[in-house]
Amino acid sequence: MILQYRKELLIISSTKLLNHLDLSNDFLLQISDLLKRGVYVRVLSNVLDTDIKTKFSFVNSLGLKRRIEYEVSNQLDSINELILIADGKSMLHSIFDPSNDLVAHISTNESSILVEEILFEKYWNEIKSLELINHN
């Protein structure tokens, strides 16, 4: 599924859906393969999940070309979806519907992808700015 992407993988997700993704389709193995090939992987979630953080830390300890960057933003409290953007060209949007079935859509609509990338960068930059302020 995601092995075809080569440059950047952005994931913005509720912790519930991130856990679901983590448990399915050998996600960490696929992410590790992407990291070996030099892909930047950044993950942004609404709640710190220590299990996911531990798994990402393990992958990061393998000495691959790149590392998974994992951040949490309280600005995403109400998010109940998972958006995976690959190279700014394709996007997977997943959500649990009212009957708790996972529904996913793939899009290559440039405008939709750009909007989601802008939102991702907005929240990511806010986190990084707060980290700089707190360390000074």
What gyration radius follows from the Cα positions, in whole Å? Answer: 15 Å
CATH class (first level) name = Alpha Beta
User: Per DSSP, what share of the residues sits in E-state strands of 2 or more residues?
Assistant: 25-35%
Q: What CATH architecture do you see?
A: 2-Layer Sandwich
Sheet with the most strands, sense and barrel status: 6 strands, mixed
Question: What does the secondary structure layout of this molecule look like, with pairings?
Answer:
Layout lengths: L7 E6 L1 H9 L3 H10 L3 E6 L4 H11 L7 E5 L8 E6 L3 E7 L5 E6 L2 H26 L1
Parallel strand pairs: 1-2, 2-3
Antiparallel strand pairs: 1-4, 4-5, 5-6
Give an overview in words.
This protein has one domain (8-135): Endonuclease Chain A (Endonuclease, Chain A, 2-Layer Sandwich). 41% of the residues lie in helices and 26% in strands. It contains four helices and six strands. It has a six-stranded mixed sheet with strand order 3-2-1-4-5-6, with helices on both faces. It is globular, with a radius of gyration of 15 Å. The chain starts with 7 loop residues before the first strand and ends with a helix. Mean pLDDT is 87; it is low at 1-5.
